[in-house]
Amino acid sequence: MKRPAPRLPGSRWLRQLSLRTRLLCLSTALVAVGLLGTGVIVTTALQGYLQDRVDDRLVLTGQIAARLVPPAGTDTPPSVQALSVLGDTTVTYLDDDGTIRRAFDASTVPPGGGPELPFLDHAAVLAHEGRPFTVSAKNGDHSWRVVALTQPAQVFPPERSDTRGSVVVATSLDEVDRTVAKTRNLSLTVGAALLAALTAAGWFAVRSGLRPLTRIEETATAITAGDYSHRVPELAAPHTEVGRLTDCLNQMLGQIDTAFQARAAAEARTRRFFADASHELRTPLVGIKGYTDLYRMGALPTRADVDQTMTRIAAESERLTRLVEEMLLLARIDEDAAGTERERDREAPFALDLAPMDLRTLAADAIHDARALDATRPVALTGPGGGKPSTAPAYADEARLRQVVTNLIGNAVTHTPPGTPIRVGVGTAGDRAVLEVADQGPGLTPEERERVFDRFYRTDDSRTRTTGGSGLGLAIAHALVTAHGGRILLDTAPGQGCTFRIMLPPTDHSFR
Prior knowledge:
Elements: H1 11-15, H2 19-66, H3 78-81, E1 89-95, E2 100-105, H4 122-128, E3 133-136, E4 143-150, E5 165-172, H5 174-209, H6 211-224, H7 241-296, H8 303-337, E6 355-358, H9 359-373, E7 379-382, E8 393-396, H10 398-414, E9 422-429, E10 432-439, H11 446-451, H12 473-483, E11 487-492, E12 498-504
Parallel strand pairs: 7-9
Antiparallel strand pairs: 1-2, 1-5, 3-4, 4-5, 6-8, 9-10, 10-12, 11-12
């Protein structure tokens, strides 16, 4: 089993901090490291530069002192006093065995008690090769820079030509140390002030930069509270990271809002469906139960009464059967439209028996149905919108389309006054086959037109089969036409009748 990665020290503490605080701490730490590094580099470079200058002067002074003969006596000769251009300087002459011959101070009191010189005999002086080196002061409070050189033999008089010696020149670095320390303190002070100013500016910059996240948080809070219409405001250009994130989030929120609205609408339709279905099923069941109760109570004394009651029970049973079949058909169409995955060897929940056909056959049968329902009505066969009828080839399930057309003819006869003309149009519009059923009845209002294909919707609230119906006929018609890949349209207005137009795709259209 894979072990989890070890947590770094302090990671739990960091996770408890807000993103704004972590970003500010990170940026402040980076600025602090940068300022500290810059200060170290500057002070180191300055110290090296000042020490190099001291070394140059120290070597020059040593070369001059090496050519001077130390005079007798205790007074400092003017030639040595002239070497005080370096500040606090000491000059010491040594014999070859390292014994101090004479020592001179260019200042009255050497700082720190003077340099703590090491033992320097002739060999030690030669080992330093004239390179400056550093020693501490006698009291150890600062450093001295020292150079040791051998004196040439020609410096001494001829009578002392066998005499050799060395000269050691030392210069205090106290001034250099003070300058470097002052520069270091100034860098720290300025760096601290600059860091404080940058931290304050960084706080406002981070706060401004993270404002889109704050708005996203506010939007998420509003959505959690139930306001699905809330959106993230556009705070940056679309081509920026924040702009693209805002656009993606708003698209996602739009889809979520649409999904919730669709779910709410589906739940409302489901509740309405169950309520209406329960009422529709209850009506024939109540009738059947009432007639059977009459029979059990002996309220049907004659054979004629029993036959009449059984006829009514049969009619209600047919009504109940037809209603259940309509609901089952809609359920099968819905299940098929949902695209539920099934094994290939299983039959689809709703399958169309598609075959080439001509819609003129359905139009001719529709005219006969209309005349059979009401022989007094004038019924005309035309093309779409009027004119002459023409062929309308389609690749469809004739039985299902006949069910649609029969339903439309029944509605036209039922919901218009007796004697109202009916027109059946058939033909093509573009590459689509068209069949129309039009009447000159009272028509529908825009509100009714929007809901006429809803299940269990009736423009007449009556629950009788004469005028109200079950409210499933047009819903089934719409579902069947849609299952063919076609469209059913309604053109209506108050006082201008209704025209239901079925439009099917061309015969080469592939279904499913």
